[in-house]
Each structure stands twice: as structure tokens, then as C-alpha cells.
Design brief:
Length: about 90
Amino acid sequence: MKYLLAALLCLSLSVHAAERSYKAKAEFVRTHPCPGTGSNKLQYGCRGWIIDHVIPLACGGADAAFNMQWQTMKDAKAKDKWERKGC
């Protein structure tokens, strides 16, 4: 049962990952430049930082710029651990 729940959660997260909006990310970066470089162009990336959904998509959060934030890789890994446990 434990493995079935874990598999369903992974499937849910992967489905949501496929549904992420490039347009929403681009809007977020235009209005919130990369903390590391100051760039507001999504195609240049942001070394050491990722765009995070404040309220995870798997927990019903919106895939919109208002629900995004810059997060360090270290902080992202920590948040991912508790997100995998469920909402």
C-alpha cells in the first residue's frame, strides 16, 4: 500500500510538471529578475536558483506568476522533501 501511494504521488507530480506553463514562467522572470544575474530573460536561466511554486501544483496551487518565487537549489531540495509527503 505504501508503495502504491508513493507511485500515485509521483505520477501526480509528473503530470503536473508536464502541465507547467512556459508563459507563466516567462511573465514571472520579466517581473522578478534572476537574483544571481539580474537577467529578466527566461532563456538565459539563473544559475543556482530555480523558479518554485509557492503553493505546489500538486496541492492545488496556480501555475501563474503570482504563485512563483525564486528559490536556491538547497532550499528547493528541502521543500521538495516535505512536498512529497503530501499537502
